[in-house]
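G., the chain you wanted modeled:
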Amino acid sequence: MSHKIAFISLGCAKNQVNCEQMMSLAQAAGYQLAPEADGADAAVVNTCGFLASACQEAIDVILDLAERKKAGRLGKILVTGCMAQRYQTGILEELPEVDGILGTGSYGEIVPALEEVLDGKLRPCRLGNIHTAPQNGPRILSTPPWFAYLRIAEGCDNHCAYCVIPSLRGKYRSRPMGELLDEAAELASAGVRELLVIAQDITRYGTDLNGEHQLAALLRELCKLDFHWIRLHYLYPDEITEDLIDTIAAGPKILPYLDIPIQHCNDGILKAMNRRDTKASIQALFRRLRERIPGLVLRTSLITGLPGEGEAEFDELCEFLREQKIERAGVFPFSPEEGTRAAQMDHPDSDEAARRAEVAVDIQSEIMDAYNESLLGEEREVLCEGFDGQAQMFFGRSGAESPEIDGRIWFSAEEDPEPGTFVTVRFTGVLDGELTGERVE
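Predicted structure as tokens:
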């Protein structure tokens, strides 16, 4: 009888793709995929190691699995991913319940690692080269069948002062366009309706291959495939070309939803953090995008309490938010991460950073409320994702909501729509910051 293996993926969508690839390799080797850890011969925890809070979440999951293992409900524990890459020695020393680790350069070695763990003779510690690890390979989708991620590159060359990603994921490496189009065609033929194009920085795509930005060309080819929506995640502000803007504006399948993490707007802080933007360049970019892409929804990420942020710099950030009216924003207090330059710089204490994050979130909530109010009475295309029995309403997303991060649209319907189908919804109200409406039959 084949061993049962449970996979648990934490952190970002890029991590999820790695987990889907490991699941495929394990299944192809004859292992049975278990839906949960209880009763499994081994659990694979694919960890995030980006922030201390993400590492703590991973540790909590591992300790929970350790309790199941102790109670005889689980066999072995294999820890993979970014936290394994970042803290390999600490994990093996401080978490004796862990039976082995697999770094971000060794995802392709999941099968031999499982063999070693299940054999019990070794505590494997596989840490391959993070700069050359292959990125391709079949996947078993863990998303709902109507959407999937296409990771077009691995690693990052931006080296922002607060970020550990380059040391965990290696240098920036674009995947060949032909390989991406083959994978995308498979996803389309499997019934995927929404394709999310992801990487640490998708705007740089292709520059490491031939020195030229190739994202726009890739998107034009993806638009020829049978997707309904194509969504873009993580565009670095100073790498957005005129060709890319034109392609987004002209592509009917490319959603006018752009995720552009800016982190801050103060010139001094941006420079200290090794960002290549200025406040003026960000303002000019946002203005250009709004002028040329009808109905644009912007998403960004902001950090409060960065080194160099006093009250004046924070006030400048708040005023920037009020002025720009960015529709979607994630606000995070600065986390001084071990091994980063920013951790060595003077910065506000964690309580003050958290307080400022709350203030920025309050401002952003007002902006989002005003945005929602402005849509009342409008009709929008919504991807139905299910029915909530407690609320007695269907739920889904419009082009303005990315899965997992942006909330939902709630609506009533006389005829029940199937999950994964597109319906037209007229917005009639707002509930807890999310739009409600009724299906237009």
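The longest helix spans residues 350-375.

Shout if anything looks off.
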